[in-house]
Structure prediction request, 693 residues.
Amino acid sequence: MATLPFLIELGCEELPPKSLKTLAESLLSGIEAGLQAAGLSYSHARYFAAPRRLAVSVQNLAIQQPDRTLTVDGPPVKAAFDASGNPTQAALGFAKKNGVDISEIDRSGDKLRYSKQIQGESAKALLPKIVQTALDNLPIAKRMRWAASRVEFVRPTKWLVMILGDEVVPATILGQTAGRLSRGHRFMAQDEQFTVKSLGHFPASLEHSYETNLEALYVVPDFAKRQAMIVHAVEKLAAEQGGKALMPQALLDEVTALVEYPVPMVCSFEERFLHVPQEALISTMQDNQKYFCLVDANGKLLPRFITVANVKSSNPKFIVEGNEKVVRPRLTDAEFFFKQDQKTRLETRNERLKTVVFQAQLGTVYEKAARISELAAFIAAQIGGDVALAQRAGMLSKCDLATEMVGEFPELQGIAGYYYARHDGEGEEVALALNEQYLPKFAGDVLPTTPSGLAVAIADKLDTLVGIFGINQPPTGSKDPFGLRRAAIGLLRIIIEKELALDITVLSQQAVNAYGSKLANANTVNEVFDFLLGRYRAMYEEQGIAVDVIQAVQTLKPTQPLDFDRRIKAVASFRKLPEAEALAAANKRVANILAKDGVVVTGGVDNTLLSEAAEKTLAAQVAKLQAELAPLFAAGDYTPALSALAALREPIDSFFDAVMVNAEDAAVRQNRLNLLAGLRELFLKTADISQLQ
Prediction:
């Protein structure tokens, strides 16, 4: 079938920079879904995205749907004709519905059937609806109207290009009539229009023409290419300044979405601002001004930054000076807040927190800090930390929420506390703990490094978990206003990766006790534990651990996260052994036998009742391993223990081949059940191996 290239470009007023990439990706996905649903084949599709345009290019698009046969079933033949063979109303209605005479209906089967050939529609006729649907389904939180139009979109539309091969696809979408005129850079090309058309007959000619013409008019439509240009230029400029540019991906995406033709420039600010915590300076320059900050080899902020202009100026000095002028008040504000905050000791700010509500049913932020202090002290004692330091850090943990700096820059909570604690003469560990309490902030983030930081971070997260579950407001569906899922995974990561021998149920009970009579849910400890148990799956699946391995350990409900992790690693290792599949099946068989009604395990194995060679061998092996592996299980050394249990494969297979468990003699039968129970108990010391698939 013949194919042609297809291009759609929607021109708009400046699109929201934070969502530009998402909008472009969604448009591409929507068009591809529409093409596939319509049965229109193609070889490749890609998107273009710039501040004033969204575009999709499709290569080798089939110009027509394939013909297809449509078959419709009607009423049963028995109900379609009466005793005389005359069609009933049901049959006549079916024929009328399909627009044919009853004689054209197939009655050879159990039901009436009508088949007809449907000629495929042209791509040219189908594309307008496909594009419209894709645009309608874009993830736009709030659509707008403009002028007197009833049309709604994320921003007012300005032009529409829709070309198949070298022909315009007739359509009117979002108030714009499709044509072949696109526009260049608003300033450097003075919004010059150009005609989009194929350069030749090779497949990519339309796409190549579009991209080449736009670049000649100072628009780089390819988002990834534009971003690569920014990265290369910024890195080069940073190196020339003897530093390294901070380019978080979210900021990089936003800057890429703000410019059609990127022109990075180096700017500077007064060195006097460097005595302000650099996190505050970086925060305001990144979040408010969209600048790339520069740091030296040690990560210390340099008094320079890089802005990315959207024009190539003949006199860039004015752009540089303008950005330097704009950033100065921002940095001055940060300096002012920092100096003002230092006039008041951090601990005195707890008084203000007595009037700040954490949650209506759970009291104030001050009360939360007091609970964190108490719980952190308990945890510190458990992990060998300094109880007094952890207690002090917990009491100061929320003080910086009442500072001017955090009021202006909420993202600096914890960081501001660190600087102010050091200024007040608090110990370094206490100061660090104030910042580390919020770690990890996201997946893969660093963890606290100090004992007090670990204690406060665990206490803070657990206090929130217990409190919210205690008032019966757990997360539901996608709603998680208190970030309990993130807190839970962070809590588990800290305990596991820092190898802390902490019991979740014990800690949760301590947290419940600290709340006193505020909690209405008597089952809080169990519900928090079950919630954390469920988080393991998400955490380990990200690490590539199979679901059945996770379930094998979850079934036993270990209360220590570190112990849970050791079991996971042991089962994952065991699963790779050649004996694993057979032993998993054997465990399932044993579990089913022991689960039958009337089966009761009465104790150990009586060797005098063993008569078959296979059961004697298995009993001897089980007894031997029970003794040998006891120290390993006690130490939580599950991997070598499970590996040793792999030796039971042959004795187990022989037992089931040669021995009848349900012997007629009741004593013998009970003894064999006891043997199987002892065997299963050996495996259950680590996990329920029967869960493995």
Remarks:
- The first helix runs from residue 20 to 38.
- The mean pLDDT is 93.
- The radius of gyration is 35 Å.
